[in-house]
Write a structure and sequence with these properties.
8 helices, alpha/beta, disordered N terminus, 6-stranded parallel beta sheet
Length: 245
């Protein structure tokens, strides 16, 4: 299965934050957000919400108010007051439409993700997805791209244990570490949204940031614990996991 990659993006700085966390290298586990990280899927979700809710959502509104939020948070924010459908009915309709959109090849994956995961596999790095999105969507997306084999587990926004403790709460990342039976100090987080970045940092884990407009301020005002801001996975600081001999 060939992945669909976006066009080249502007090069971003790999520099460390002014006050990086104490190194614990090489790290053993990589915890990935999904939307905007593994896949450049925010535009897919914006169009999906528009079509499901029959409304217009300008990209700037989606970026500023919806990115990093759970499905239910966005539905509560965006559903029209006169929409007679139940939340459960809208969720089911949205999921069916998402499945069709994935099958139609509308989901775009971040450049270099497949190659990097293959390197991680050869180095014995363990991977998990920690996302505010729903499990069914992420599972299907990873299967469609033949990436599911690289991940030991998913922690998702619709998991009962996550309810009330979603990002920026550190719980999803700490829960993933617990399920993998590893110390949080052995984990690296990969994120794009500010709520996700805060969740990773609050969990005591270094964060590698996939660059977008939402996190652009990190270039001028780096946060302690952010290990780099990169355009795509070709720029990932792999020395966090593997030292060349």
């Amino acid at each position: 299965q060939d992945l669909v990659f976006p066009g080249s993006q502007e090069h971003c700085s790999n520099r460390l934050s002014a006050n990086p966390m104490s190194p614990h290298q090489p790290y053993k586990v990589c915890l990935f957000d999904f939307d905007g990280t593994i896949a450049q899927s925010e535009e897919l979700h914006r169009r999906n919400f528009e079509r499901t809710l029959k409304i217009d959502i300008p990209p700037e509104i989606w970026d500023s108010e919806c990115v990093g939020k759970t499905e239910l948070e966005n539905l509560e924010r965006l559903m029209k007051h006169d929409d007679a459908r139940s939340i459960d009915a809208v969720v089911a309709e949205r999921k069916q439409l998402l499945s069709t959109m994935i099958d139609d090849g509308e989901l775009v994956f971040t450049i270099g993700i497949q190659e990097m995961l293959e390197k991680f596999q050869s180095w014995g790095v363990r991977n998990a997805v920690v996302s505010s999105n729903g499990r069914a969507f992420i599972q299907k997306a990873l299967e469609k791209a033949d990436l599911v084999k690289h991940f030991e587990l998913l922690v998702c926004g619709d998991d009962p244990v996550v309810q009330g403790r979603a990002k920026p709460n550190p719980f999803p990342y700490l829960h993933a570490a617990e399920l993998l039976s590893v110390d949080s100090k052995e984990c690296v987080v990969v994120e794009d949204s500010m709520s996700g970045i805060k969740a990773g940092l609050n969990a005591g884990m270094p964060v590698v940031v996939i660059a977008n407009k939402v996190n652009a301020g990190l270039e001028e005002a780096p946060l302690a614990g952010v290990a780099g801001r990169i355009a795509d996975f070709r720029e990932f600081p792999t020395n966090m996991f593997h030292h060349e001999s």
